[in-house]
Amino acid sequence: MKFEFLLGLMAFGLAALFNTTPKQKIVKVLVLNFDPVIEAEGNKRLHEVFKWHDPRWLAKEYSADLTECSSGFVRYQIVEWRDLDEFPLKVDGFAYDDETYLRCWRERKGWHEPDGVDYRRLIDKFNLVERVNRGEIDEVWLFGGPYFGYWESHMVGPTAYWCNSEPLIDKRFKRNFVIMGFNYERGVGEMLEDFGHRVESIMTKVYGRWDYKIPLEQMNTWERFTLYDKVAPGNAGCGNVHFAPNSEKDYDWGNKRYVWSNCDDWLNYPNMTGKKRLVNCDEWGGGDIRLHHKWWLKHLPKAEGIAPDGKLANWWNYFVLP
Asked: How many CB atoms lie within 10 A of CB 211?
C-alpha cells in the first residue's frame, strides 16, 4: 500500500512538473511614463503638445492584442502607472529640459549623444530589485518620446542574455525580467514589433541557433517556423518580424506575390501535417504593420505539453516570463 501510494505521489509530482502550460499567465507590469508637463505649452503633457498617441490607449491596445494573439494565454495587469514630469537620465547623466527637447524636435537636430538611457539608475530609483524579487512586478514598460534612449526590449537579471539589446547582468535580482521601451510618437504596430524582436531573441536562445544557411532537414523547429520564400523557395513557414512568407526585402509586408507556405499548419503544432498553400499579403493585412505582426504572433505555437523536440509546445511560456 505504501509503495503504491509513493508511486501515485511520484506520478502526481511528475504531472505537476511537466504540466508547464497553465491556461493563463498573469503578467504584472509597472509602467513608467516619462511624459513631462510642458508649462510653456499650457501645461500640456509632451504627448499632447505634439499630438502623439495617448500612452494609456497604447498600453490598452497592446495588452489586448497580445491576449488575443496568445488565445487568452497571457493577460497583462498594470499594477502601477507612474506619470513622470521629467526626462530620463542618459548614461552620462544628461537629461533634456522642456526648452531643449522642444527645440531639438522642431529643428530636427541637436540631439544629445550618447543617446542611451541609464537603466541602472532607473533600477535603483524605482526600487526594481526589491519589487521584482518580492514578485510585485514581472516586467516594466517605459513610455517616452523620440530620442529618449530606450531599447525596444532589454533583459535584466542574474543570467540575462541578448534580448534585442545587450543584457544587463545584475546579480541582485533573483530572476531575469524584461524592460520594454515604447515610443508614444509611434503606434501599436511598432509596440508589437518590439515584442516580436523579443520573441526572436528568446527563441533563438531556447533553440541555441537561428541559421537559414544549413540544410532544411537539419533545421530546428524555430528555424523552420521563421522560413520565408526568399531563403527557402517553395518552403516558406510564417516568416519573421521583418519578413512575411513572400517578402523580398525588409518590411515588405504588402507584397502581392503568391508563394507556397505551411503557415496554416503551424496552428496544428506539434501535430503538423505538412500541408501547404499559396499565400500573399492578403493574409496579413496588405502591408499594415499591426495586422502583419498580429498574424505572425497568432501563428506562434501555443499547444499544451512537451513537443517531440523536447521544448515546450507553448512557446509563449518562454518569452512572456523568461
From this structure: 10
Q: Which triple of cell numbers denotes residue 48?
A: 499632447
What does each C-alpha distance from 255 to 58, 258, 283, 284, 287 come to in angstroms? 27, 8, 11, 10, 7
For the chain, domain boundaries:
24-186, 208-320
3-state helix, strand, coil in the chain (%, to 5): 35, 20, 45
Burial (0-12, 13-18, 19+ Cβ within 10 Å), 97: exposed
> What integer pLDDT is reported at residue 20 of this predicted model?
41
Residues 80 and 284: their CA atoms lie apart, in Å, by 34
Rounded CA separation 267/264 (Å): 6
DSSP secondary structure string for all residues of 68-115: HHTTTSEEEEEEEEEEESSPPPBTTS----HHHHHHHHHHT----SS-
Phi-psi region of 124 (alpha: psi -120 to 50; beta: other; left: phi over 0): alpha
> Over the stretch 43-87, which tens digit does the pLDDT of each residue have?
999 999 999 999 999 999 999 999 999 999 999 999 999 999 999
DSSP state of 269: T
pTM of the model: 0.92
